[in-house]
Each structure stands twice: as C-alpha cells, then as structure tokens.
Hints:
The chain is an alpha/beta fold. It contains 37 helices and 20 strands. The strands form five sheets. Strands 10-7-11-12-14-13 form a six-stranded parallel sheet, with helices on both faces. It has a five-stranded parallel sheet with strand order 1-2-3-5-4, sandwiched between helices. Helix 26 packs parallel to helix 28 (615-627). The radius of gyration is 32 Å and the shape is globular. The site of thiamine diphosphate has 18 residues, from helix 5.
Amino acid sequence: MTDLSDFGSSAFWRVNPKDPDPEETREWLDALDALVAAEGRERATYLLRRLLEHARTRRVQLPPVMNTPYHNTIGLAQQPQFPGNLEIEQRLSAIVRWNALAMVVRANRAFPELGGHIASYASTADLFEVGFNHFFRAGRTGDLVYFQPHSATGVYARAFLEGRLDEEQLAHYRRETGGRGLSSYPHPRLMPDFWQFPTGSMGLGPIQAIYQARFMKYLADRGILDGDEHRCRKVWAFAGDGEMDEPESLAGLSLAAREGLDNLVFVVNCNLQRLDGPVRGNGSVIQELEGLFGGAGWNVVKLLWGADWDSLFARDDDGVLLQRLHETVDGEFQTYAATDGRFNREHFFNKYPELQALIASMSDDDIDRLHRGGHDPVKIHAAYDAAVRHQGQPTVILAQTKKGYGMGHWGQGKMTTHQQKKLDSEALSAFRDRFALALSDDDLEQVRFVKPAADSPEMKYLHARRQALGGYLPVRSSVAPGLPFPPLAALAKLLDGSHGREQSTTMVFVQLLAQLLKYPGLGPRIVPIVADEARTFGMQSLFRQIGIYSAVGQLYEPEDHDELLYYKEAKDGQILEEGITEAGAMSSWIAAATSYSTHAVPMLPFYAFYSIFGFQRIGDLIWAAADSRARGFLIGGTAGRTTLAGEGLQHQDGSSHLVASTIESCVAYDPCFGYELAVILQDGMRRMLEAQEDVFYYVTVMNENYAQPPLPAGSEEGIRRGMYLLRASALPEGRSRVQLAGSGTILREVLAAAELLEQEHHVAADVWSVTSFTELRRDGLECEHWNRGHPGQSRPCWVEQCFAGWPGPFVAASDYVRAVADLIRAWVPGRYVTLGTDGYGRSDTRANLRAYFGVDRAAICAAALEVLDAAAVAGP
Ligand SMILES: Cc1ncc(C[n+]2csc(CCOP(=O)(O)OP(=O)(O)O)c2C)c(N)n1
C-alpha cells in the first residue's frame, strides 16, 4: 500500500505532518468510532471539547481546527430527496446557458468593443438555476438576491424565457443608449424595474448583502416589518472566489455571525479562477475561505463534488482519494478542468495504485464526466436546503465549479477564459452537442436565441416553479407610501437663530434631528447611523433618548448607568452604531435608503461621518447608493479643510463637494448658518419623502461655534437653489464696488472681508451666501442645454438671475479646493476670482490655517482690492 505519509513537500504536508505511529493513531480513531456508535455524535463533541480543554492546560499546541476534509459537508445519507424534475431542469438550464452565451457572442460579432463574459455564468449557471427553480421566493415578502455581476447574462436569459424580457432587449445587451438595451451588470439606476442591487464593483455586493440582512432584523425587532411575515425571507449573495479577496467582501463577516444572521446565505462560486489566472494557484481557496468563514462564526457548507463522486468516496477505505485531493493545489485543479478524462486518469488517479484501482472500471469519458459539486443540481439543492434551514448563524456555501464549464477546450479551465467573448462555429457546435440543444446548423450560425413553445413541458415547468415561489425575480418596485414631514414653519425655533448664543451647524443638525425624531409618523422611520463618532458630533444624547440597536439588548450595566444620558443598547434601539467601519455604516445607510423599494417601507436614514471619510474613503459605496436610487441624508461632519483645525492632513476635507458634484442624484450643500441647514433638510424631505424623487442629500456641517442669525425674509428659494443675497452694501452709489460670495464657515470670513473693505478701503461689498456651488452648476448646465434646444430663446440660470444688475468684479471663497467655486465660472458675468484650500491639510489653529490657504478675511479683502485695481486699469 502507498505510504500516504510520504507525499514530499506539498502544501498539504506542510500543515499535516507525518504519522510516527500509525498503529496508535488507529486505536484512538477506533475508540472514537466506537464512542460515536454507542453514544452518538453529541457525546463525542462533548468529549472532544473536554479533551481540547485538557490539552490546553497541558500546553499542547492545538491543530488548526477550522478545516474539514475536501469533500461535501452534506453526506449522501443526509441528502434530501430532490423535489424537481431533473431532466426538464437540465434542458431548461441548457437553454438558459445557450441564450446567455448567444447574447455575448452576438453583441461582440456586431460590435467587438462591447465586451462581456461567457465563462463566469457558465460556471455559475446551475447555482442560479437551482435557486430559481426551488428557493428564491419572489414578492414583497420574498428573498433578496445579490447576483454575481458578470453572470448577469444568465439572469437576462432566464427572464427572456419567462417572458419578462423580449428578443430585442437581448439583442441590445450592452447597448443602452437607445432605450431598449440591457445593462452590462446589475444597475437599478439603468433598469429600475428589474435590478434591485448593484453588484458590479467587486466586494460591494457581499458587504451590502450582510448589512441588508441585518437591516431586515432591525426592522423586524423594531416592529416596522412584521416579524412573522418576514421570518422566512432570505438574503442570497452570490460572489466569485476571486471577489472574496476584496476587503469589503470580508469586512462584515464577523458582524453577520455576531448578529446571528440566519436570514443570510452566501454562495461563493469557487471556480478557482479569477480574471488573470488562478485565485490560489499554490493553495486552496476553498480551504482558506472555510477557515475564514468558520473562524468568523459562520455555518460553512462545502459543495465540492457531484453525485458521481459518491461511490468513489464510499470505496475510498484508506482515504487515498481524499489525501490525493488534499495534496492537489488549485493550480492543478484548474489544469484538470482544462483537460480531458485521459489526462485526469494519468495525472490525478494513476499517481497511486489504490486510486488506479478505484477507477478501474471507469472509461476516460466517465472520468471526464465526473462533476464538481456546483454543477450537480441535486447536490446544490441539498446545500441550499441545509442553508435555509440552518438557524442561529449565517451560512456560506463554498461551491466548487469549473470556469467556462461546457466550453470545451475553447474555454473550460483556460487561463484566458474570463475574457472569452467570441466563439467560432466549431466551438458553438461543440457547446450544442455538450448540452444536447435542439439547434440547427443555421441556428448555430445565426446564434439564434432559443425559446420553447409556451405549451412545451419546459415552459410549463418553468412557470409553474416560479408560480409556486410567488412570481418572478429580480423585480424592483418603486411604489411606496410617502412619509409625513414637518412644514418649514414647524422648524421656527431653528429658523429664528440662536439669539447671540454661539452654536455650530452640527449642533443645529442634532437639534433638528431630535425634533424630527418626535415628529408623528416620521420619528420612528428615522435611522441615525454613526461609525463611532456620535460623541464627536454631539449626538450622544440620542443614545439614551432612542437607544442603540442591539439584537440582544443590553447584557451589561453600562459604566455610566447612573448618568442621565447613559449608553443604552436595546433590542428596539433606533440608532445603528456600526463601530469603526465607514463601509459597514454606508451599507446600512444604503439598506435604509432603499427600504422604500426593497420592503415598501420608506425610512429616512441620516449617516453622520467625518466628511473626509465619505466620498474619499468609501466613494464607491456612495456611487453604488446612487445606482440603487437611494433616498436619505449623508451628513459630512467636521467639514472643511480649515474648520476642522487641529487634525491635519488625513482628516481635513477639501474635496468632498467636488466629488459629490460628479454624482448626478447627489444633491450637495455647504451651508453656513443653521437656518440654511433647516431649509435645506426640510426641502430634502419634501423631495425624497413626498415627491419621491430618487435623489439623496449630502450636507456638510461644521464644528465651529458662532452666533446663528435668523432667516432673512424671502431667502428660502435662494437657499434651495444655491445662492442668495445676504448683505447689500449700505455705502452710497459711486464707490468702487465688488460682489463677494462664500460658502460654509468661510462665508463668515467673506462677511468680515466686506466690513474691512468698507471700513478701511471705502469699497462697497455685497455678500452672497452660496449654499451649493454644485447645484448652481447643475442649474447652469441645464439652462444651457435648454437654450441650445430652443434657438432664439434664452432661459437665464440662477447665477445669471442673481448677478443680473450686479456688475462685479466677483470674488468667491470656500473651505474646499478652488475648483469648487470655479464650478459656476461660466455664468458669472464679469471678472471672477476664486479662493480655496488647494493642497494638503495640516494641523494648526483655524486662523493660521485660513491665512495659510488664503481664505481668511485679509486674503479675501486683498483679492477684492487686486481685482478692483485690475478692473480700474482695464477700464469699463
Ligand atoms: C472593484 C472591482 N475590481 C475589478 C473588477 C473587474 N473584474 C470583473 S470580474 C473580475 C474577476 C472576477 O473573478 P471571480 O470573482 O473569481 O469571478 P469568476 O468570474 O471567476 O466567477 C474582475 C477583476 C470589478 N468588477 N470590480
């Protein structure tokens, strides 16, 4: 017999040392077997735990226990009866496979630049199909599925069979500008009736799915969703094994386990390859992921081998097969996927005589047909069934597949398969034969889509299965009830100003939030979210007032329990305190901000964060939020490069407004005064909750204290549109005159500069408060567009309307890079000088920083005098 302990220096043997006394080992194993047989597995688990504890006291080093053998977690004996018609399902999945492939091939025949993927869906087709036929429940209380993005073709191909997409749409895959096209990846922004969750940026699907599952528990624990109705709902997240390398893919694993998210199922499509090559050529990605998920506290289900391996494992008395699998690294598994039965026999099985004997009765074709688990519907069904039944933990299914499955030597397991998007007739014909598709040579040549007749057994089956599961998916709905919100008059206290008391806009925001939390009908729907910065923003009073959500309540007496505003965690707590994870907090925000669509329950999330750790740190998640048609408030706190004084380069934000301006549905404001903030937030609620516009707000608030003035009469429209005249100079006509504009706290420097100009230089200065350079620019662009389409007519934009009759010159300053104030240059009717905080932040006092960056009153005054001088020299 082969000495299994002599496999040389493979990765397997580095963690599995040789056995110095096999006989003794056998005795221990026999003893365990006898125990299990006599007293059951539970008793064995108990004794193993005691043994481990005892070993620890003896300082015996423990082996890595997070890995199980390289076979299916669910044994043949535990496998439930497959409830479907296997034959019909296989025929259906063959058609879906073909149509998915045809979309890509046709698009690229016509326009080679369009791109697309065939190999990824080829590997995941069965994983999707078993879900569609047996698990994914549709409807308002149905499941939420995050699809692996570059397998979107398969979802379209199935929707085509279901009659939800037509042939013209399929023919316009990746050609969207004409209006009948299909998105490359899941994009609710582009297909708002179809896709629910954007997953195209690797890693964002997994983290959003986790926080979605958590948000559903939050809604149920707070009594907003009916717990009974929603108990069976699952969140399914399909990810690639390469995708699991993204930090975001792994970032939420411990939260999911900690919160016991048994409504969450991850399916990792382990085809062992990513774009460039193998995911872990020299190791095993499945074993690695098993350790990671298991270590985080997940229920791990390995789905590695198809039914045809069952008899091989059953006869593997000496464990040679298992050992051979363990010593094989993923790079070799890929080669086995790319080669035929003969090669596999010679290189995998023939290595040891015991293995050779095991497959003696199998032909090369039989070996070629040995399935990996992720291609066997029965095994997939068993894994999914176990996952949906599992309680108390989230489940991950590690499904082993072959990349480019069924693409023969044109793609299966090939290093370059990820980018394969064209197939010649020979390859198409081989694909047809491989999946027994009833296609003529002409069908092949034209790469025709296939749709069986409505009364065919396949179509009847497909519809019946979906009917049994509540309908079709993915489907996105935008229908949601509105929410009440206060009229502006109800915010009078904030609009009246602080009566001389010094307050920051952050404090005004917290007051406003507290008021909204008490507003009937709206209060309970507000979701305050923080990433360990509540105290920074003075939000700690909310801890006691509305509680921090915790799935288990509060199991300890908080250190500050005898204080009025103690740290209160509660099962019905309203605040989501995410800890130091901006990505996690943002994912929670997305779940809340799309709840109107996902759950037909509108919520109003406010996520308050250090403004630099928003667009800069997790910009891609904000982009995904916009794609998701999120509605809610992002509050960029401690904003401005010179306003957050002491913190320095990594903390001082001078660019978020510039980035915000690039996101079409993001409405951004940089208000200076509390009344401006109140008008903006109230208008935001009107647009999002009443008009149900698919926009979200980014509003910066600062921590600088100053007296908050009352709302100047008639300024509401200007505040909303982006600017208004705050102070017209009282100096008599005939003086030199300049128009100054400013935003955020720098507006106060502008006001001080106006005083300086008037008092020391006898120059008249009018001051404009700019609440949003970005909205002003949008309005300018829109008017330009309109004017172009209406020759002979001219619609002035808001900047032009405001500055009409004000001759300039103009000076504008903000606490952000100059490019922010430059956004409106095209519509300023005169010489326009901008000041900003370009460069790296650094720590110092506010006064020193503003002088350093040239945005203080002296710099603004100097810029105004200079531009006036230049104008005087240039003449009228
Ligand atoms: C953030 C991000 N980086 C890169 C890409 C480009 N990309 C698309 S698919 C892919 C490879 C995915 O490999 P894997 O997750 O293993 O999925 P498979 O196609 O093998 O199923 C890459 C790098 C992306 N979509 N998102």
